[in-house]
Structures are given as C-alpha cells and as structure tokens.
Design a protein that fits this description.
six-stranded antiparallel sheet; about 0% helix; 14 strands; about 160 residues; single chain
Length: about 160
C-alpha cells in the first residue's frame, strides 16, 4: 500500500481535493518504478479510479495494469477509495490524499496536472479550476472579502 500525501499552507480555504467524478475523472499522474528490476519508466503514466483493466492470466481487474519494458513483468495498481480532501491546518500537516494497492510497481513521483477544488474557510464559496502545477494558487473570496491562497505545496509518496 502506498499513499500520496500532501502538505500545503492553506489561507482562507479548506477541503482541497481533486475534481473527480465519473463524468470527469481525475487522472493521477506518476512516474512508475518496477519493484522487480528497479527500472523507472521514463514516461508519466495516468491512473483514475473509474477505469478498470483486466489482469493477464487472472479474473481480476485493476485501475492500472503495466508491463515493464525491461523485465517484461506485469504489475498493477488499484485506488483503494475516492480521494480525501486536504483540510486547513495551522501549521500545515501531512495528510493522505489517496491510497493505492500496488503489486509489482511503485509510484515514485507525482505531478498535479488536473483540476482541483476547495471551499472557503470563512464562507460558502466554492473555488474550482485550481491548478497546482506551479506549487501555489491565489484568488479572492468575494463573500469573505479576503485573499485566499494555497502555497508551499509538497507531494510525497509513502508507505500506507
């Protein structure tokens, strides 16, 4: 089991989460490493919780099925549950966003290249279209009358 973790400084917002619906799934983007030969695949790969792929020689399915080009072994990863939202905390704390059951592979690097959403901490404002690729985001909450931000975004992949 691996967990994608997030640490971020949230100002004026909370419940930061990827926009992830069946009609518009969030694609978690990773670099992947084979646990057999330790080869790191040079390209980014995408995993979403709504996609299901057959596992060779098995009746099982996984969200991500991958064959290592170096050693030819087939590996799988399955998202355990919908992504959790990152709650406002002062000081910022490490929180699990999503957990993966990985067999024969490990995710070694994450790229936040999809749309995220958050809610106003002191208002009912919902912020959509949040882009975390640059590691920060700024906006203004009209209802609360203050600037809101997400800064110092740090992603990590850990054993769950």
């Amino acid at each position: 089991m691996l967990a994608l973790t997030l640490t971020a400084d949230l100002t004026g917002v909370t419940n930061l989460s990827p926009l992830d619906t069946e009609d518009d799934p969030y694609f978690f983007t990773f670099k992947v490493q084979c646990t057999s030969c330790r080869e790191i695949h040079p390209n980014w790969v995408n995993v979403n919780r709504f996609e299901s792929n057959d596992i060779s020689g098995s009746r099982g399915e996984a969200n991500f099925v991958w064959k290592c080009k170096a050693c030819k072994r087939e590996s799988t990863a399955t998202i355990r549950a919908p992504a959790s939202s990152y709650k406002h905390a002062s000081p910022p704390k490490i929180q699990n966003i999503v957990e993966f059951d990985c067999r024969g592979l490990e995710f070694v690097e994450f790229k936040a290249d999809g749309e995220w959403t958050a809610k106003g901490l002191e208002s009912t404002t919902v912020f959509t279209g949040i882009d975390l690729q640059e590691g920060e985001w700024f906006d203004y909450d009209e209802k609360a009358g203050e600037e809101v931000s997400i800064k110092d975004v740090k992603w990590d992949i850990r054993r769950a």
